[in-house]
Structure formats: C-alpha cells, structure tokens
Design goal:
2 helices; single chain; eight-stranded antiparallel sheet; 46% strand; Lipocalin; 123 residues
Amino acid sequence: MFGYAEVRGEDWKLYEDNELFSSYYDAQSITYPSKNIVRVWVRVFFNEKVIKERVEFGEKYINVQYYITLIEYDCVERKRKFLTMTYYDKNAIPVESVNFEKRGYDFIRPETPDEKLIEVVCK
C-alpha cells in the first residue's frame, strides 16, 4: 500500500484548463524510478458542473472540489497508470483515498490531458 496521502510540492504548473476541470502537475515532484519511467503528482480541480454530477457517486462527494493523484508514465510505450488518488472537499479535507497498486498500465489516448503531460515530463 502506498503512503502518499498529501503532496508537499510547491511548484504546481497548469497543463490543462477546460470547461470541466483544471489540471496541474507538481514540477518538484517529478521522479524517475527507472529508465523510461517517470512519476508525477497531479492535482485536478473540478468546475461546478462536474461537482454537481459527482453527487451521483454518493453523498460524501457532494463537496468534493479536487483530487490529487500520483501517476506513473512509461515514456517509451506511452502508457500511464495511477498509483494513488485522494479526493478533497472544499475545505481541503480528505474525503476518500484510493490505492491502485494492482492496476496495470493504460495507453494514452491522443489529444488528451495525459498526452500533454507526458510530453512535458518525458523530456
């Protein structure tokens, strides 16, 4: 199990901003655990429409404003996998944490926020 509940980085950089969400990566958190593999913390803020729709996932999501996730990218294969994710309410209080320890990689689809981010972190 991963112990990444909170992010300590202070260098959040915007890489996606659209009508649904705004996404930032922490430039200070980028690590390279092995050749062609990169890990980075990402913070995603939901807009009001998405916040209202998240209620369908349960009452605890009524006030969820954002999540922070640790993502691992395979720079050669152009794949990604989430390692952990924590949802936060409007007061920055954790609502739920999810561990994706056993989840495998997914291919990155073209013209997505992940495609933008992999171009930045896999330089």
